[in-house]
Amino acid sequence: MRQSQLFTKTRKEAPKDEVSKNAELLIRGGFVHKEMAGVYSYLPLGLRVIKNIEQIIREEMNEIGGIEMKTSILQNKEIWEKTNRWDDAVVDNWFKSKLKNGGEVGLSFTNEEAYSNILKQYVSSYKDLPVYPYDFKEIFRNEVRTKSGIMRGREFYWKALYSFSKDESEHNAFYEKAKVAYQNIFKRVGIGHLTYETFASGGVFSKFSHEFQTVTPVGEDTIYLDEKSGVAINKEVLNDEVLKSLGLDREKLVEQKAIEVGNIFSLGTRFAEPFDLNYKNENGEEQLVIMGSYGIGLGRLMGTIVEVLSDENGIVWPKSIAPFRAHLVLLGSNDEAKDLAEKTYKKLIQEGIEVFFDDRDVRAGEKFADSDLIGIPTRIIVGDKTVENSSFEIKDRASGEVSQKTLEELISELK
Amino acid sequence: MRQSQLFTKTRKEAPKDEVSKNAELLIRGGFVHKEMAGVYSYLPLGLRVIKNIEQIIREEMNEIGGIEMKTSILQNKEIWEKTNRWDDAVVDNWFKSKLKNGGEVGLSFTNEEAYSNILKQYVSSYKDLPVYPYDFKEIFRNEVRTKSGIMRGREFYWKALYSFSKDESEHNAFYEKAKVAYQNIFKRVGIGHLTYETFASGGVFSKFSHEFQTVTPVGEDTIYLDEKSGVAINKEVLNDEVLKSLGLDREKLVEQKAIEVGNIFSLGTRFAEPFDLNYKNENGEEQLVIMGSYGIGLGRLMGTIVEVLSDENGIVWPKSIAPFRAHLVLLGSNDEAKDLAEKTYKKLIQEGIEVFFDDRDVRAGEKFADSDLIGIPTRIIVGDKTVENSSFEIKDRASGEVSQKTLEELISELK
Questions:
Q1: Superfamily for B3-309?
Q2: Interface mutation vs chain A, best among B2, B4, B6, B7, most A CBs within 10 Å
Q3: Successive 10-residue mean pLDDT values, chain B, 415 residues
Q4: Rounded Cα distance, B151 and B141, in Å
Q5: Model-wide pTM > 0.95
Q6: Contact B68 A44 (CB under 8 A)
Q7: Residue ranges of domains in chain A
């Protein structure tokens, strides 16, 4: 894409009410637009990042047997009354609205009810299980405090997978697979080295749930990390009994602030019971389905990546999710350099490389500052010297390393 | 995908309150799940169709300079007050909700305000124009009557593009390009032969808007079609003056029922004025931006395709949007046939062909009935005879034509 054709522009300042680094950089770079506290629109650059994150999550979910669908946002009151979660006294962050011809609807704040209700129609025999449906969609939570930029939204884009298994052992086997898939996701989006599987409170049906916590000083959660084993415990469940059961020594744990970028829960029969979600086993006996839930907020993940990987000049996107793989920057206005930049742009596209081409008529300093802020992994400079030397000056955004490369070397690196 | 792993199943009957053919077939085939009147979830097969439609629309929008982004669903009251469209007395189909810490939000029922407000931040000079941003997202309308299945929803998945142009002539040139893009879309999804560009009421800023109307007896709109020229007029604007201005003869027009599958509007400065959306032209003079809007409901389009292309046995998907390109149906339980079916399944996937494999242990009649209902374009039968003849029996869903093909012939046809 040509930068001259992108309508967004970088900004020197973020809105004054925006106190989080992630939202500040994402707004200044033209990735998101703040509609109100906790509600953001994705601008073209931001949507490209979200789509890249989405595709990585999709691949990992499909790999463990996930099957994609899409549940509605408007929620039927009757379905939520079955689990006693419609009442505002029970769930206090609903967004609800009135139907013109009478009655109320809710905006989905999670999906257990929707999935249990759909599966109830299709599951009757052991042959129908296990099933692992998931979706990506907007989720709504009527939060009072929304100070963390795109990390705690009133509206946020969320992946939710639900597992429907015949019994505990089938459930546990999938739960372990899901852990690995989650680890793969956080590695692939570039924060694997900072993200820890963390024991957290489990609820009625299991002792623990598991959170994936990314360590950063701005995190809202506190975890205790055993650096040697890589095991972490959320502060909320830290006590002597738990430490003993996990074989951990309190003395060796390090307290860290962290952001929860994903969580997985064993739900037991919490939802199967009210929905009467059962199946006939091989002996013809009725059994309740065992459920699990596996969530990741894509906007929060994007915000976390910005928080932990940016530097004083702007965002540093990992290659896997960057809006473009390369930033081609034309300097100067001499015709030969312009022709070479145009030729290079077309060649890179032809080779299937996603390239952002700064063809604007602005000064070099501004181009470099914008390029640093936007954070595309590899910068390619085309100027008068490029024409003379027939090699390009390349700058790696993450390391700052500068090198000279021929077009062939460049293509083979970027492919 | 293996049919045994898809959790949805076909149904003999649709819910009794479902009177439209499109929703009946889509529910029976396991494409959608009805959450309440006018609200549907997309099941795995349905989401595959929607994604195929989305990709066709995306390609055509990008082709005419569109740039994808994603505006939020929650809408800020202040922004809508600028255009006087917040008040329920002005717009009567809002869904609104209350914020926990005071104030109201709306659910987006269209996007002119959101886009005008965002563009206001980025447009200041003639160099910033034209711009053609678009998005795909859920739209909400608080409809009282919702009798048309997925064709008139309270929640629906919508593509909206907005054009921001410097002047009328730039606007008109894009408007004509958009018409062609729309014609391409309806051709590519398989209903081009039934879909007519139709003159409809224009509002304050232009004499006409243009609807794309697909002819079918269940249509809610009435159009008058000049079959020779392919020009149509919506009943709402049919009068002698309009006929004269379009050079049409009333006697030669045929009355038809039709479904509006897309529409394009010239908005003039209707939104630029309240948002003060202007730019400095080359002479340094302030000018208002000229806008246009270009919408397509993806669910409605999917429903329309089902309405007009299905037959007494079920849905007939065009190849371009079918959930799979081929339906591989294993008959009988003999080991050789099973092995051949497995081998063929893997080979087709290897060749990049999207194939749905009916590996279930049910009788042939049920498999054929399901296959007809689901409507995948090409059925490939693997049974005892296939093994003997080393050629496959192929059935074309649309024509019903049966032929024999070797694996090589099959692959070259499906690719």
A1: Bira Bifunctional Protein; Domain 2 (3.30.930.10)
A2: B7
A3: 93 83 94 94 98 98 98 97 96 95 95 97 96 97 80 92 98 98 98 97 86 95 93 94 91 96 96 97 97 97 96 97 98 89 96 96 95 98 84 95 95 93
A4: 13
A5: yes
A6: yes
A7: 3-309, 326-414
